[in-house]
Amino acid sequence: MTSKLKLQVGSRSEKGMKEENQDYVGHFIPVNVALLAGKGAAFALADGVSSSSEAKQASQACVTGFMEDYFSTPDSWSVKKSGGKVLTAINNWLFSQSNQYHDISRGLATTFCGLVIKSTTAHLFHVGDSRIYLFRDNSLEQLTTDHRVHMPGQQEYLGRAMGIDYRLDIDYKSLTVEVGDIFFIATDGVHDTLSDKVILDAIKYEQHDLTILCEQLVAQSLQNGSLDNISCQAIQIKELPSQDVEEVYSQLTKLPFPPELYEGVTLDGYRVTRELHASSTSQLYLAIDTDTNEKVVLKTPSINFEDDPAYLERFQMEEWIGRRINSPHVIRTIEQTRPRHFLYYVMEYIEGKTLEQWMTDQVEPDLTEIRNIVSQAVSGLRAFHRLDMLHQDIKPGNIMITAEGLVKIVDFGSTKIAGMSDVSTPIERQELLGTKHYTAPEYLINGVGTSQSDLFALGCITYEMITGKLPYGDRLSRASDNASFRRLQYRPISSYISNIPHWIDKAIRKAVLVDPLNRYEKMSEFECDLRKPNPQFLKEDQLPLLERNPLKFWKTMSILLLGTNLLLIYLMIT
Fold first, then answer.
1. Which of 244, 286, 163 is nearest to 424 (CA)?
2. Of 71, 103, 281, 360, which alpha carbon lies 20 to 30 A from 133's?
3. What is the DSSP letter of 364?
4. In a shared domain, residues 301 and 174
């Protein structure tokens, strides 16, 4: 039987012996099932730095801002990215407000502990000296590290906080949760006054009522002489979302597979004109929307996979992806207004050709046109990356070009969504790698890709548009381990074409380096270096041959020495 995430929460915050309470505690557990599944539940506690006169405003702004903005981030983002982006933005706002005062004592500074529980995983965000503990199996573990600096002979002070600098270093960690787990979040007004054993004993005794637990710990902190504000929050995992494969399969097969489609057949108001493409995994049909007379494309699943839950989930996820990406350089998924009776989805119809066909039709490479294609492809890929998605199958066949020169990226079948990786499932998901000639080495080495992996594929395509070849030939498709990848040799464009500027070759070479850390950090940098010379590349040309290309230097020297020796032998004989 399907169950959802169920949590119990209790909290308490008191000003204690101080004139005002500069702590702030908050939480949000969505009632909406889809939002709870997609974003999880959030809990936060902040302790305003007392040396700042605006500490109360800082802590409140930090907690409320985190609660509001986290749930406004795209559901395709991972929890780590969503939380990190939100906290960075809040930190920048706090710091900018502090700068307005031109007085450090009036700055907006606060510690922060954030906890997001999504699916079966807890995600922790921490800055400062408030703490997050985990109570499990009758033991208490501190999950965060206090950001305090100890100076010999001096009082310790806070080493990290929100709002004290534009640069923000956030501690993040994630862990799998279990039913019965209790997370306990507390300011230093509690944990500096009560020992871990006292907190542990209290949780053991009052774990059935977390509100009473927090009230008792706050009261005990006061009795023990705490001079600070006193705040804490406790969250218990009551139930975790769970499904079995049969339940998931039942949900995925609510809509039956479409019947056989051919010219003249009408499906839910779409009249099929002709089949555009068929493969072992899906079919594409050109159709007319009978309400609007608009040309559209229907994508239907292959009957070969009707009993494969992983395939069905991936097929339906393609439509989910398409609805979230809004870019003129990514094929548009059309939201259907009529009831749907079969499993398929609808996309815009693109009148044009694939980049693969475009390359076949070219007689000579036109750099201006190639730059334009790359620039548009970069814009399309950045639309994926902004949503924390990787396309993972960039190849000439998945790039369309219209008669007007508009470039659109198609096919989301291999797209990886970071936000979905946070959600547990009984389905055994398999990472779908791209086409072997364009697949970045890191996928085959450790199975993990980044935006630099999509860049690698685009770099290979750029090289191919110019030369008609691939930068590593067919050796890339045969490489399978670190050693074989290290042996790969990039072949300069000048080996095939002599009239291409050397700095363009160097830009492409950097985009397709085997080590992703050595590639461009941003795709826009690659795009820029294709349009104008990178000064660094020009500097490299001024270096001696020995430094620019040691292998070529020693080969040349060997040939010269061989020639000299042969000449000497000839002279000695004659």
1. 244
2. 71
3. S
4. no
Q: Which residues 6+ apart lie within 8 Å of 72 measured at CB?
A: none
Each residue's pLDDT tens digit, 221-272: 999 999 999 999 999 999 998 766 677 777 888 899 999 999 999 999 999 9
CB neighbour class for 274 (10 Å; exposed up to 12, middle 13-18, buried from 19): exposed
Q: What one-character DSSP code corresponds to residue 232?
A: E
Q: Clarify whether residues 14 and 118 are in a common domain.
A: yes
CA distances in angstroms from 199 to 147, 185, 192, 218, 502, listed in the order given: 21, 11, 11, 11, 67
* Size of the chain, expressed as the number of residues it contains: 574
Lowest pLDDT segment from 53-57, 176-180, 540-544: 540-544
Opening angle at CA 338, ends 336 and 344, nearest 5: 55
CATH value at residue 142: 3.60.40.10
User: Do 313 and 425 share a domain, yes or no?
Assistant: no
Domain extent, residue 552, equals 544-574
CB 90 within 8 A of CB 73: no
| Proportion of the chain in helix, strand, coil states, percent, rounded to 5 | 40, 20, 40
Q: List the strands of the sheet with 399-402, edge to edge.
A: 352-354, 399-402, 407-409
- Per the domain annotation, does 314 fall within a domain? yes
Phi, psi angles (nearest 5°) of residue 343: -85, 110
Q: How far is CA 408 from the centre of its chain?
A: 22
Selection from 405, 391, 415 nearest residue 328 by Cα: 405
Q: Same domain, yes or no, for 437 and 485?
A: yes
Contact 448, 269 (CB under 8 A): no
Structure tokens that stand for 521 in this block: 């950090």
SS3 479: coil
Cα-to-chain-centroid distance, residue 499? 39
45 touches 25 (CB < 8 A): yes
Q: Which helix (H) or strand (E) holds 24?
A: strand 23-28
| Closest among 133, 132, 92 to 112, alpha carbons compared | 132
Residue 1 counted as domain residue: no
**Same domain flag for 433 and 520:** yes
CB atoms within 10 A of CB 359: 17
Write down the pTM of the prediction.
Answer: 0.83
Of 323, 348, 373, the last residue of a domain is 348
Q: Let me know whether 520 and 491 are in one domain.
A: yes
User: For the chain, how many structural domains are there in total?
Assistant: 4
Based on the domain organization, do 442 and 513 belong to the same domain?
Answer: yes
Asked if residue 190 and residue 82 are part of one domain, the reply reads yes
